[in-house]
Amino acid sequence: MITYDQERYIGQAIESVLAQQVDFAYELVIGEDCSTDGTRAICEAYQEAQPQTVRLLAREKNLGMAGNFFSTIAECTGEYLAIIEGDDFWTDPLKLQKQADYLDGNPGCALVFARTEAFFQDVSRRGYEIPPPDIGPYTLDGLLRTNYIATCSVMYRKDLVPVYPPWIRQLEMLDWPLNVLYAQRGAIGFIDEPMAAYRIHTGSTFSSRNVADNYSSILKFYQRIGPQVGPQYANTISRSEATVCIALARSAFAHWNWRDAVRYALLALRYHARSRMK
47 and which of 56, 94, 227, 255 could share a cystine (Cβ 3.0–4.6 Å)? Predict the structure, then answer.
């Protein structure tokens, strides 16, 4: 669990982990990144109350999201790795048990995820399910088209990726490339049961950014991940890059930014032509 300035939500996140009913030992490793609110004090209280389960990494200086994320993972010693951010929570007290049993029974699986309920904290909008009902089958090719795995729902076979490549730290999103890295090393498992809740609020990393910035992050992801997954996925990558560039062109056009609109439209044509040549 990584957290920063999440005092409103961190207690619920931790409680949902401590509520897990399992027949094996597990540990909650929290990377607290020098919050400016009361997040650290809440984490310290849980560590004091549950020292056998909660291990707090109280940073001496702010590492940023990527630095905190990978430094926290490096401290995890379990066979399996589950991730939950400090503003999300698990809804099924058997989540860890069910997913560990699934990986035990399916040695060819690199990761397993579950259905997640996304909800809006600050506005009156209808939530949605992750993954959407029409997504599937759950393959690496499909994962390269869209990230259908909610971070708070996944469990990885940790040692399949003993070292994370340097390029992943340069991306503005971490969950999608991490899913791809593991999916390259085994099958993707899915338990069709709701097990987690993804909270969308004004302080969320991606929801607080504008649409163009989010699409720019996705384009950067494709440009980085393309050379890593092999030529058999080149067509999928090129088509996805074209789709993202079209969205960026439309966003620029809507804001009367003609230069970027033309630039992204030309990039979309280039990626589309590349995909047709495959």
Answer: 56
